[in-house]
Every structure is written in structure tokens, then in C-alpha cells.
Amino acid sequence: MATQLQEARAGRITEAMKIVAQKEGLRPEIVREETAAGRLVIPANRVHLSRNLIPAGIGRAVSTKINANIGCSSVRSDLQQEIEKLKTALEAGADAVMDLSTGGDLDEIRTRLLAECPVPFGTVPIYEVIVGRDVEDITPDTILKIIEKQAAQGVDFFTIHAGILREHLELLGSRVCGIVSRGGALLAKWMLYHNRQNPLYELFDELCAIMREYDVCFSLGDGLRPGCGADATDAAQIAELRTLGELTQRAWDQGCQVMVEGPGHVPFNQIQYNMELQQQLCKGAPFYVLGPLVTDSAPGYDHITSAIGGTAAAYYGASFLCYVTPREHLGLPDVNDVRQGVVAAKIAAHAADVARGLPAAVERDRRLSEARAALNWKEHLDNALDPKTAWAMYEEACAHSRIRQEATQDDYCTMCGKPWCSLRINKEIRQLLSSPQR
Predict the structure, then answer these.
(1) Were both Cys, which of 112, 188, 342, 407 would link to 92 (CB 3.0–4.6 Å)?
(2) Domains in the chain, start-ordered, CATH in brackets?
(3) Angle between helices 302-316 and 335-356 (to 10 degrees)
(4) How far is CA 281 from CA 221, 239, 241, 399, in A?
(5) What is the pTM (predicted TM-score) of this model?
(6) Which of 332, 310, 220, 218 is nearest to 265 (CA)?
């Protein structure tokens, strides 16, 4: 069977492309053209697609998407809590989910989460490769077997750290934080121990064969992404990005869908350059960024630092934002952290889409503003990016109003009360201006 990329190149519009077009308000022909060019991906493993997956498009022609990371670890493994995190992420608006589990029964975790997940689902296969064995003992055969197993289970996109090469490690000498990517660090240790090239780079053709069979989308990992602002846009990061551009073309040549992962921690003034350089080197393949975080000085608030960077990144070229929770750098997120991370990333993505002039995003803002001006609370709150929180705050304000009777009126202002509300006064001004007695 052909992949979405191969179908698009052959001029055929798949059912998945039609679904993406309908969701995005585009003609199916546009989705096909963008997919054929590699500028749009539809991560849709045939196995997951045959079960409960609702296809989604990631690329510059469509709305900016966000991903939520969840997963058990060796220090905390609770499958039920991860299922709850998944449901919370989806309810809050996540467009995709990645299982980053490194502890517990990984096959059971993956199977259960996939069964509950109607959006694109990703993993980092090297995490399972290392479970139960030392880094030095990893073999190419083990890597291929685990990747094929996960593809057969229905995973839609894989983070594959094939771009970090043996020669890139010599560029790390002046870094403050070294290699912060777990996958990148594991592979760097393997390369130094064996004095060999990255096995994922050497196995790339074999990986393409597996990905093509199931139509799993590559998410080419940034093993050398900067882990602090001081390391941003350095020689190591750019050297790996150039290799990712090479691998993007190799994957396309073999009929595989590709997106490319990027930083990380990037000062605000460097974001535009990073986004534009990736678009150039990777020929327009969708860019998937972690944040980026624009300052290192806000532990506990990194969902905010990443949202600031995420808006700029999505405006200048990124198509896919990975959320960051308030607990980034501090510990594993709980359910509430997941919700806060998703909402912050959704705000960043939506703000970028408004700035890009995407009609649906612009219209949503206008619709909410018109409802706000009319003191139409239901329309106002229902159109919020996080209506659950908006409604809770509104109801709390009404409950604490000194004039409870007025608080039940549709046009009651929960901030100003009756006589001081500028919006209420505006309604009166419009009525006076339209009065025939003027």
C-alpha cells in the first residue's frame, strides 16, 4: 500500500486528506498538493487509522498544532494516571500525544494509550531500546525489531535521532548544558564507546522501509538541541540540522512522510533565524519545536516562557508546538500540569494563527469579541480556548457578587457591576445615537 506522500505524488486524494481538508476549511486539492511537496504531513499509521484515529494535518497551510507528552518513568509508573493525563490533554485541546514512557510494562502502556487516543500518537523508540540493557549493548538488530514492533502496534510518528553524528560531538566543548536530549545523550555515549557512527544514521534505509510499510511519519529528532539560551544556535545544533535536511530528502525519496524537530531553549531574538534556517535546509518540511523557551530563569513557569517562544516560532515557520508544563526541569507533570501545559501551548498556537491571518482563527477572536461587547456571556465563554476555566471563574464571580439578583442577568458585568460597566454604557450610547429624537 502507498503512503500518504506516495498517494499525493500520484495525484490521488485519500480519505485522510479529505478529512484534513474539511477540518481546516481547505479544498482537498490543496491538502494533496502540500502533502506531495512534503510541506504537510498526515501522521496516520495504517493500523491506528483502521481503529480509532481521526487524521490531522501538520504544516504551514493548516492551523498550528500542539503535542502533549505523557508517560511513565522508572521512578513513577502508574498506567491509570497516564490514561487520565491523556484524557485531560485531549479535553484541553491537544492535537497529538507522545508516550515517553521509560518505566513499567511499555507494551501494555502503549497499547492501552493507543486504544484511548483518537489523535496522532508518537513515541521515541530508543527509550524502549535502552530498557533492560546497557547503552553499550545496543545492537542494530535490537533497534530495528523494536521500531517494527511499535509500528505494528499503531504508532503514528517516531522521534528518530538519526541526525546526531560522531563528528558533531567534537563541537560540544563550549556548551553550558551539553546534550539535554535523552535520545541524543544515549546515542552519543554509544558512538564514543564503540567509536562508530550513529546506528540510526547507518540504518536509515532500513528504517525507511519499516516506516513506509506502516506509513509511520518520521519526526527527525534534534539530539543536539540547546538546553539553555547560552547554547542556542551554536555550531553543534546547526551541524545536526544540516544532516536532518539531508535525511529529510532521503526519506522523501523512499516515500516516507517527514517532519523535523527543533529547539529547545532559544532567546527571542534568535527565533526567526532558527525557523527560517530550518525551512531552507529542510526544504519546507514541517518544523516541530519544543517551546522554544525564551528564558532559563523561570522554573515553575516554563509553560509561559515556552508559550512566548511558541507564538514567535509558529509565526516565523514552525507548524507543530510541543507543550511545556509548569513542572519542566523540576519533575514529572501531574494531571493539572498537563492541562496548564496544553492550554498555554494552544494559546501560543492560536495567537500565531491570528497573526498569520488564518481565517478561522481571526473569526474566532472576532466572534468572542462581539459576544463580549454585547455582554453575551454564554457565547463569550463557550468560544474561549479554555471554556472550562473561563466558566468556573465567571460563576465564582457571580457567586461572590454583592448584588446576586443582578448577577443572574445575561448582561451583568462581573467586573464592574451595573453603573460602571463601559460595555453596558456603550450599548446605551448606541441606542441614543440611533434614536430618531436626536
Answers:
(1) 342
(2) 42-357 (3.20.20.540), 376-433 (no CATH)
(3) 30
(4) 15, 11, 7, 56
(5) 0.94
(6) 310
Read off the C-alpha cell for 430: 448606541
DSSP state of 406: H
- Listed as ranges, residues in the chain with pLDDT below 70 are 77, 400-420, 423-424, 437-438
Angstrom distance (rounded) from CA 89 to CA 100: 15
Q: Taking a C-beta distance cutoff of 8 angstroms, is the pair 286, 41 a contact?
A: yes
CB 126 within 8 A of CB 376: no
Any alpha helices (H) in 195-334, and if so which ranges?
Answer: 199-202, 204-214, 235-253, 268-281, 302-316
The beta strands (E) that lie in 349-389 are given as none
DSSP assignment, residue 104? Answer: S
Strands 58-59 and 40-41: antiparallel
- In this prediction, residue 373 carries a pLDDT of 85
Q: For residue 129, what are the contacts with CB-CB under 8 A and spacing of at least 6? A: 138, 142, 143, 146
Q: How far are the Cα atoms of 112, 178, 227, 334 from residue 330, in angstroms, in the given order?
A: 27, 18, 14, 12
What are φ and ψ of residue 406, in 5° steps? Answer: -65, -30
Q: Provide CB contacts within 8 A for 380, sequence distance 6+.
A: 368, 371, 372, 390
Neighbours of 331 (CB within 10 A): 11
Q: Are 72 and 100 in contact (CB under 8 A)?
A: no
Residue 405: what pLDDT? Answer: 45
* CA atoms within a 13 Å half-sphere pointing along the CA-CB vector of 12: 10
Q: Which residues of 377-406 are buried (b: 16+ CB within 10 A; e: fewer)?
A: beebbebbbbeeebeeebeeeeeeeeeeee
What is the rounded CA–CA span in Å between residue 100 and residue 321? 16
Q: Computed over its alpha carbons, how large is the radius of gyration of the chain?
A: 24
